Amino acid sequence: MSYDLVIIGGGPGGYNCAIRAGQLGLKTAIIESRGKLGGTCLNVGCIPSKALLHASEYFEAAAKTFPSMGIKVSGVSLDLPQMLKQKEDAVEGLTKGVEFLMRKHKVDYVKGFGRITGAGRVEVKGADGATQTLETKNIVIATGSEPMGLPGVTIDEESVVTSTGALSLQRVPGKMIVIGAGVIGLELGSVWRRLGAEVTVVEFLDKITPTMDNEISTAFLKILKKQGMKFELGHKVTGAEKTGGGLLVSIEPAQGGAARTLEADVVLVAIGRKPFTDGLGLETVGVAADKRGFIETDHFKTNVAGIYAIGDCTHGPMLAHKAEEEGIAVAQIIAGLWGHVNADIIPSVIYTDPEVASVGKTEEELKSAGVEYKVGKFPMMANSRARTNHETDGMVKVLEDVASKRVVGVHMIGAGVGEMIGEVCVAMEFGAAAEDIARTCHAHPTMSEAVREAAKGVDGWVMQA
Ligand code: FAD
Ligand code: NAI
After folding, report:
1. Cβ of 38 less than 6 Å from ligand 1
2. CATH (residue range 348-458)
3. pLDDT range class, residue 244, cuts 50, 70, 90
4. 290 CA to middle of ligand 1, Å?
5. Residue among 271, 315, 413 whose CB has most ligand 2 atoms within 8 A, to mutate
6. What is the pTM of this model?
7. Residue whose CA is closest, atom 14 of ligand 1?
8. CB environment 196-224: b (16+ within 10 A), e (fewer)
9. pLDDT at 9
10. Which residues contact 335 (CB under 8 A, 6 or more apart)?
11. Which of 55, 288, 373, 412 has the lowest CB atom count within 10 Å?
12. In the structure, what pLDDT confidence band is assigned to residue 245 with cuts at 50, 70 and 90?
């Protein structure tokens, strides 16, 4: 079979690339080995984690928030099998939806493991061991990433788990130790804390979510501690040993010092992810990767003509929407059109309660680049909707570059800020000044008024606080 484009990997990078390629009339095939489309995101990432975050948020609210709103509930209890089932239902529905989209856009879905065997040739090995070879003018590698392991900690996906195991625990652990205070650790740690686990997060650095704006990270830590999550910052885990009843986790200060042990029923290893390119045949055709295994690209092109790479297996944030953008851009380039991703405007959201959302530069990045900037801030405590809804934790911070008078960074914590970041991305794509946001009418009473107020703050005219 001969194609214009063969995509290896059916995650958000791959399947969005396939849809756009189909729309543009390219004869396209997508190869996926896990038996379902959707990649990490739909199967063991974004979607199942958000299903559990949403449900566990309701569970906690029923006991803790409803009474203060005059809603009496009694006998609230956890039906974990049903909570896990509704998560699986969400995954099932959405992965089937992606399959439908492949058919709709006339993309061939080839089940099996893809290996590049030469220029324009991809061999696919099916689950039954049978192989077929696809001939193609172009190849897009979209094989994603996998969790990183930690020496001394053996993962069994039952008591010592990665995010994949943590999405399917069959009972609520009494004590859970999370290694790594990054996005996965804090989201999934929040899920199991809300459902009843005592959660302790061990983080190597002395701050959580290290790449986040410092002020936001500090405020976020305070909120998580208030919710009952415990932290061992500046510590590293050196081993996890199974005992009769559970696990003994050894930790010691990152800078050296006395070791201690912590007891746990479940340990979640969430110290980052690494590109997945095993068995892909990169060496056969000479596709270059860096020391950490990320495929080197220039505008999605690898060093080998006709082979491109996108998403988690290349450089940049490991985010579904970044992979999606790159998938669209590369399909357009292959079809002879323009294709571009603005790496400066890729939002990032942590779906805890409250949520944390940011886009663009942090204050620390602007300082270290020597950029003169102005700051506007607004606390959620002063936002009328946040107060009405009993959701006053958080703030919005807008950063404007003095020289260009453009918004270059927005960082927020608050209920629903993951939705609010979209307006800021649009404004930034249009090169907005803070004043443009400040003079745009926002509906009242909404949380998004906090963005407007923070934007006013850049020019010193916050009105509501
Ligand atoms: P993937 O989604 O990893 O897809 C790659 C696919 O390629 C896989 O299905 C794999 O089976 C397949 N594959 C690999 N090699 C081969 C081969 N040789 N042949 C055939 N198939 C192959 N991001 C967000 O933006 N928002 C979130 O809320 C979010 N939550 C997350 C929660 C968790 C718990 C995790 C783990 C990740 C989360 N992410 C989130 C990150 C997001 O899932 C990834 O950034 C995204 O899935 C990357 O897309 P991708 O297409 O590059 O790769
Ligand atoms: P991460 O990179 O976000 O965080 C890893 C954390 O572990 C860091 O704080 C790091 O300092 C710490 N760490 C590293 N080694 C350590 C050690 N030995 N001991 C203790 N701490 C250690 O990685 P994470 O959370 O695993 O997530 C992987 C990727 O998945 C992220 O890049 C993220 O973008 C993506 N993701 C995105 C989500 C979202 O957008 N909401 C949700 C979940 C994952």
Report:
1. no
2. 3.30.390.30
3. confident
4. 20
5. 271
6. 0.98
7. 143
8. bbbbbbbbbeebbbeebbebbbebbbebb
9. 98
10. 21, 24, 25, 26
11. 288
12. confident
Mean pLDDT over residues 53-71, rounded? 96
Question: Considering only CA atoms, which of 299, 312, 286 is closest in space to residue 142?
Answer: 312
Omega before 12 cis (within 30°)?
no
Average pLDDT along the chain? 97
For the domain spanning 160-271, the CATH number is 3.50.50.60
| Contact 274 CB / ligand 1 (< 6 Å) | no
Is 312 a pocket residue for ligand 1 (Cβ < 6 Å)? yes
Distance 148 CA to ligand 2 centre (A): 10
52 in ligand 2 pocket by Cβ < 6 Å?
A: no
Domain ranges across the chain? 2-147+274-334, 160-271, 348-458
Measured CA to CA, the distance from residue 166 to residue 146 in angstroms comes to 14
Atom of ligand 2 nearest to the CA of 181: 9
Answer yes or no: same fold for 2-147+274-334 and 160-271: yes
- Reported as a pLDDT band with limits 50, 70 and 90, residue 370 is very high
Q: Is the CB of 148 under 6 A from ligand 2?
A: no
**Average pLDDT for residues 320-340, to the nearest whole number?**
98
Ligand closest in space to the Cα of 181: 2
* Residue 119: pLDDT band with limits 50, 70, 90: confident
Q: Which two tokens stand for residue 463?
A: 């009105």
Catalytic site includes residue 444: yes
User: What are the tokens at 180?
Assistant: 């790594």
Topology of the domain covering 2-147+274-334: FAD/NAD(P)-binding domain (3.50.50)
Tell me the pLDDT band of 1, cut-offs 50, 70 and 90: confident
